Amino acid sequence: MHHLFTLTELSSAEITELLDEAERFAKGDHWQATEPLFVANLFFEPSTRTKCSFEMAERKLGLHVIPFDADMSSMQKGETLYDTVRTLEAIGVNAVVVRHSQDAYFETLRHVIRIPIINAGDGCGHHPTQSLLDLLTIRQEFGTLEGLTVAIIGDIRHSRVARSNAEVLARFGARVLFSSPEEWKDAANPYGTYVDIDTAVAEADVVMLLRIQHERHEEKMGLTKEQYHARYGLTLERGEKMKKNSIILHPAPVNRGVEIASELVESKRSRIFKQMENGVYVRMAVLKRAIEGGIANGSYFKKWKIV
Amino acid sequence: MHHLFTLTELSSAEITELLDEAERFAKGDHWQATEPLFVANLFFEPSTRTKCSFEMAERKLGLHVIPFDADMSSMQKGETLYDTVRTLEAIGVNAVVVRHSQDAYFETLRHVIRIPIINAGDGCGHHPTQSLLDLLTIRQEFGTLEGLTVAIIGDIRHSRVARSNAEVLARFGARVLFSSPEEWKDAANPYGTYVDIDTAVAEADVVMLLRIQHERHEEKMGLTKEQYHARYGLTLERGEKMKKNSIILHPAPVNRGVEIASELVESKRSRIFKQMENGVYVRMAVLKRAIEGGIANGSYFKKWKIV
Amino acid sequence: MHHLFTLTELSSAEITELLDEAERFAKGDHWQATEPLFVANLFFEPSTRTKCSFEMAERKLGLHVIPFDADMSSMQKGETLYDTVRTLEAIGVNAVVVRHSQDAYFETLRHVIRIPIINAGDGCGHHPTQSLLDLLTIRQEFGTLEGLTVAIIGDIRHSRVARSNAEVLARFGARVLFSSPEEWKDAANPYGTYVDIDTAVAEADVVMLLRIQHERHEEKMGLTKEQYHARYGLTLERGEKMKKNSIILHPAPVNRGVEIASELVESKRSRIFKQMENGVYVRMAVLKRAIEGGIANGSYFKKWKIV
C-alpha cells in the first residue's frame, strides 16, 4: 500500500524515483491506468493550487474523480473522517487525497484504511507534494540538491512547507538557512540554521519564501504590512543582492507586498509559477505510485468482508 | 417515464426486477447508454454515501454529470425547485437526482417535468434507494425476504428509512418489529409491531438501526449519549444476544456509541459497509431504468415547444 | 487570443459568425477539440442557467472541466482574481469562464493572462453570452433582427442584460424601447427610447423582461410585489395586448408574479426555456472560438518562462 503522509517516511531512493517520474511527465510521458479507477479529493481547508493540480493530474492519468464537498458531506452530521474515508472505500473509490486542518489527521487512518491516502496538507504538519514540487523545481534549475544553500524565510513555526522541506533538503545535502521573526522560530525543526534575512538572501541559491498564514494566527507582531515587508520581506532592494543564478520560490498564495515585493513575483528569478506547473507532474507521479502499489495488493476486492 | 419517488408506488415485480438488476451489477455486469446522456445531482441536504454513490453509479454507466451546487445556484436568488429542474431539462439534462428537506417535494414536479426524477430522500418522507440497498443486502444474506424478522430500532417517527422500508418489507412477507422511545413512535406507520429493544434484538434476523438525526430535532429526551445507548442502543451486551445468523444494518452515518456500540460497526455481523457497496449497484439499476424509460418516450426533444 | 468580455468589442461580422455557429450546433453539428483541453468555470456569484449550460457546452465539446469552488479556493486567504487565473494558467488550464460581482473585473486580466477568458457576467456590466442567446432566439423566430421592435422592460440601470443587448440590437437594426420605473432608468445607455409599459408591450415584436435583482439593491420603491406587478409587470391583461406574432423573453431566474404573470412563463408566446436551450449552443460557439484562437497563438507552452 503506497500511502503518502510525509516525505520523512520515504527513503531517499523513493523520493528520487518520484522526482524522476515527475520529470518524465514534465517531458511529456503518458501513463494511464489499465482499468477504470476512481479517486476523491477531500479538502477541508481552502485551496486553489493543490486542489486544482490534483484534479488536473487525475484527469491526465485518466482517473474518474468523485466530487466531495466537505460542507455538504455527512461530516456536517457529525461523521468522523475515518468513517467518511471508509465509506468512500466501501463504495469503490480507489484512492483519496486529503487536506485537513488537524496535524497528523492520517494517524487514525494509517493502519485501517485499505486504499491509498495521499496527504495534501495536514494542519501545521506536512505537505509532501509541495516539497516534491519544490525539490523538482530546484533540481531542474541546478541539476542537483547537493551543495546548494536554500534559505527558508518567514513563518517557520506554523509552516508545513518549512517542516516538510527542511528535513528532506538536509537529507539530500543542501544547506538550509532559516530566517524568521523571533516569534515564528521553530525549536522543533533542527534542520536549519537561523540567520538574519539579509544574510539569507545574500547566501542562498534558492530563496524560499513562506506565506504569512493570516487564517492560522492573529498575531502579526504589531507590524503593518509595510513594516513587516521592510523588516522580513524580500524587498526590491534585497532582491538585487541575490546571487547571480539564484531563484525565488514561494508555495503561494502570495501576499504581494508583504513577504515579497509584488514586482518580484513574476520577475526573471521567480520560479513561482513554474512550481505550480511542476505540482501537476509530481502529483501525477504520486498518484501513479499509489495506484500501482494499491492495486497490487488486491485490497479493493471483498473489502466489505469484515471478519 | 420512470421517475422513482417512493417504493410504495412500485409493484412488487418492479422492485424485484430492480433488485435482480442490481445483483447483476454486483456480479460485474456492464451496461452503458448508447448515446451521451447528462445527469445532475441536486442535493439540498448534506450527504456523503448517497451523493457519492450516485456519482459513482453515474460514471459506471458512462453518464456525464453536470455539477450542481445548491448554495451557488439561482435558488439563492429565490428560484423555485420547479423552475430549477425545468431549467436543467431545458439545457439538455436527461435525468435529475434530488434530495430535499421538504417532504414530498416531488409532488410539484411529478406531472410537469419531462425528464426522470429520482428521489434521493425527501425530508422525513421516503428514501427509496436506501430501501432497495437494504433489501438487496438482506436478500444476499438470506436468499429471500419472506419469513424473516426485521427489527427497525430508533427514531421511527422522523426516519424516511423506516417509512420506506417497513411497507415494502411487510409486502415481501417479512415480519417487522419496531423498537423506539415512546416519543419517537410513529402512529402513521402501520407495518410493524412495537416491542422493547431486548425482544427486538433477540428475535430479529436483521437488526436495522436508525440514526438519531440531531439535525432534525433538538430533543434527546433529556438523556446523555451514554444513557440513550444503554436504554435504546445496540450495546455489546445486546449484540451477544442476537440470533446465530442475524446481521446488523444501519443507513449511516453512524453515531458510534449512541445507537450502536462502536465495536459492532465493523464486527462480523455488521453489513453496514456492504450496504454502502450495494448502494452503488441499486443506484445503477435505478438510473438504468430511468434512462430506458425516459428515452423511450422521446420527451427530450422539442421540450421547449410550450403550447 | 479570443477572449470574450463584451459584445461591444466584437464586430458585427464576428457576432454573426458566432450566431451562425450556434445555429449549426442547434441543428446537431458536432465539433471536438483534437487534443485534451482543460477549462475551469470561476463563478463568484450564484448561477444555475449560465453555470450549468457552460458545463454542458464544455462536455459536448469534449473538454475536461477542472472544478473550482470560490468558497473553498485560496481567494479565501486573500489571493486576487489575477493570481488565481494565473495559477490556473500555470497548471495547464486552457481557458476560463468567469462570473464576478465587480464591474469590468476583466480589465486586470485582459493584457496579461495568456489563456482565453470568457465573461459570464461582470457585476452590473456585461453578459455577452446572454446577449448572444437572446439574439439567436430572436433570429430563429423572425429570421433577422433588422426592423424589429424590442422592448426591454424593468430594471434597466442595474441590468447587465440590458446593457449588453441594447447596443448590439441597435447595431443590427432593431428599434429598442425601454420601459422602467423612473429610479431604474439608465442615462448611460443611449440605445433605447423610454416609453410606458403599455406602449412597449403593444409595439414590441419581442418583449424582453428583466429580473428584479433583489440581491443587488434593497429598494423596491416602496411597492409590494403585487403593486410592482400591476404597474410595471407583464400582467395577463398586458399579455393579451401583445402583437400577433410577438414573443416573450426573460433571462431568468424569473420572479413569477412580479415582472411577469406566472401563467405567461410557459405560455405559447414564451421563449424563456428555448432561450436556455440556446444558451448551450451559443456557449459551445464561444468556447470553440476561444479554443481555436487560443491554440493558434501557442501561448500555452513555456508559459512559466517569465523574462
Helices and strands, with pairings:
The structure is a homotrimer of 307-residue chains.
Chain A: H1 12-26, E1 38-43, H2 49-60, E2 64-66, H3 81-91, E3 95-100, E4 117-122, H4 128-142, E5 149-153, H5 160-171, E6 175-179, E7 193-194, H6 197-203, E8 206-209, H7 225-232, H8 236-240, E9 247-249, H9 262-265, H10 272-296
Parallel strand pairs in A: 1-2, 1-3, 3-4, 5-6, 5-8, 6-7, 8-9
Helix pairs in contact in A: 1-4, 1-10, 2-10, 4-5, 4-10
How does this structure look, described?
3 copies of one chain form a homotrimer. With 307 residues, chain A is α/β, with parallel strands linked by helices. Helices cover 37% and strands 13% of the residues of chain A. Chain A is built from 10 helices and 9 strands. In chain A, the strands form 2 sheets. Chain A has a 5-stranded parallel β-sheet with strand order 7-6-5-8-9, sandwiched between helices. Chain A has a 4-stranded parallel β-sheet with strand order 2-1-3-4, with helices on both faces. In chain A, helix 1 (12-26) crosses helix 4 (128-142), helix 2 (49-60) packs across helix 10 and helix 4 crosses helix 10. Chain A is globular, with a radius of gyration of 20 Å. Chains in contact: A-B, A-C, B-C. The B-C interface holds B 36, 38, 40, 64, 66-69, 71-80, 83-84, 86-93, 303-304, 306-307 and C 43, 46-49, 51-53, 55-56, 59-60, 67, 69-71, 211, 213-215, 252-256, 266-268, 270-271, 273-274, 276-277, 279-280. Chains A, B, C: Residues 3-140 form the Aspartate/ornithine carbamoyltransferase carbamoyl-P binding domain. Chains A, B, C: Catalyzes the condensation of carbamoyl phosphate and aspartate to form carbamoyl aspartate and inorganic phosphate, the committed step in the de novo pyrimidine nucleotide biosynthesis pathway. Chains A, B, C: Residues 146-288 form the Aspartate/ornithine carbamoyltransferase Asp/Orn-binding domain. Chains A, B, C: It catalyses: carbamoyl phosphate + L-aspartate = N-carbamoyl-L-aspartate + phosphate + H(+). Chains A, B, C: Keywords: Pyrimidine biosynthesis, Transferase.
